[in-house]
Design brief:
Largest sheet: 5 strands, mixed, barrel
Structural class: alpha+beta
CATH class of the largest domain: Mainly Alpha
Radius of gyration: 19 Å
Shape: globular
Strand order of the largest sheet: 1-2-3-5-4
Strand content: 15-25%
CATH topology of the largest domain: DNA polymerase, domain 1
CATH architecture of the largest domain: Orthogonal Bundle
Number of helices: 9
Oligomer: single chain
Order of helices and strands: EEEHEEHHHHHHHH
CATH superfamily of the largest domain: 5' to 3' exonuclease, C-terminal subdomain
């Protein structure tokens, strides 16, 4: 329906924005991560997802496409509604959620308010195969060393190693100020 909005930022709060496009003001619900990434000026572009229910039509906005994709993945899980998905994207980035799902880290998903053990397990079971196929950017997963981590993970996966085993090996050997080559060598010793 509405893929994105590009217009003037009229109103801004941590939970929503109002964007004026050609004289029409759109009320858009956003996550805290999107709020913190809003540009300083009046012009704004948000990627959107329209949620149509029998009692309402709600527009959700995201500062990048990967957040919108993660939102759509999350709401496909039984027990996760749009508001819970926005809450998850407020507490964690799309990268952190994807990494928690792939590495089956229930505690990270449970750290979101309102997500219990069963729901966290259901998210992992329902989305793990999808997250292994989707490449999210590697910004701010855990440390400033994430670019090297992501490149090493991609390189070892391209060589045919199992992505989950590679991720576990990299987590064991990663150090600050370590080059991609050193990280790959150290991970290969474990694999």
């Amino acid at each position: 329906m509405i893929a994105h909005l590009n217009g003037l930022l009229i109103e801004k709060s941590p939970t929503h924005v109002v964007i004026e496009c050609n004289g029409v003001g759109y009320f858009v619900k956003i996550s805290l991560n999107t709020f913190s990434n809003l540009p300083k000026g009046d012009k704004i572009k948000l990627y959107t997802q329209l949620q149509v229910r029998e009692d309402s039509q709600t527009l959700y906005g995201f500062h990048n496409v990967s957040d919108r994709e993660m939102f759509n993945h999350l709401i496909s899980v039984s027990g996760i509604g749009a508001n819970t998905a926005i809450l998850m994207l407020s507490a964690l980035t799309a990268d952190e959620i994807a990494h928690a799902i792939v590495s089956e880290n229930v505690d990270t998903i449970k750290s979101v308010k309102g997500i219990g053990l069963k729901t966290a397990q259901r998210v992992i079971v329902d989305l793990k195969s999808k997250m292994e196929k989707v490449e999210f950017s590697s910004e701010n997963i855990f440390t400033s060393n994430n670019t090297n981590r992501f490149e090493a993970l991609s390189a070892l996966s391209a060589l045919g190693f199992d992505k989950k085993k590679v991720d576990i090996a990299i987590q064991k050997v990663i150090k600050d100020d370590q080059s991609v080559e050193e990280l790959i060598k150290d991970a290969l010793r474990i694999l």
